[in-house]
Specification:
Strand content: 15-25%
Strand order of the largest sheet: 2-1-3-4
Helix content: 40-55%
Number of strands: 4
Largest sheet: 4 strands, parallel
CATH class: Alpha Beta
Order of helices and strands: EHEHEHEH
CATH superfamily: ATPase, V1 complex, subunit F
Oligomer: single chain
Radius of gyration: 13 Å
């Protein structure tokens, strides 16, 4: 059965854990390699990544872009500072799918 995973800070992960999502807090205890290995091993259909975590994991996360699953979606970080990475990521996906930018 496909699952939902969330990569982000403890606050974000705590909120999503109550929904039944598999949470992967990205902090000092969980290294880049550990988080990426868990994504590769898991049967995830969708992985939500906060903008802050995406900034730190971008090269590793982009390796999944050529795969059918999991679908990676960037979400705003709870601190309220939107970096525009979520919009940028969605625009890249749409451009690949339909051949034009939606900006």
């Amino acid at each position: 059965m496909s699952k939902l995973a969330v990569i982000g800070d403890n606050q974000t992960c705590l909120g999503f854990s109550s929904t039944g999502a598999h949470v992967l807090p990205f902090d000092k205890e969980n290294s880049k390699a550990s988080v990426i290995a868990k994504i590769k091993e898991g049967d995830y259909a969708v992985v939500l990544v906060t903008e802050d975590a995406y900034q730190k994991l971008r090269p590793e996360i982009e390796l999944f872009d050529s795969e059918f699953l999991p679908s990676i979606m960037i979400i705003p970080s709870p601190q309220g500072k939107q970096l525009g990475l979520a919009d940028e990521h969605v625009n890249e996906i749409v451009k690949k799918a339909v051949g034009i930018s939606i900006e």
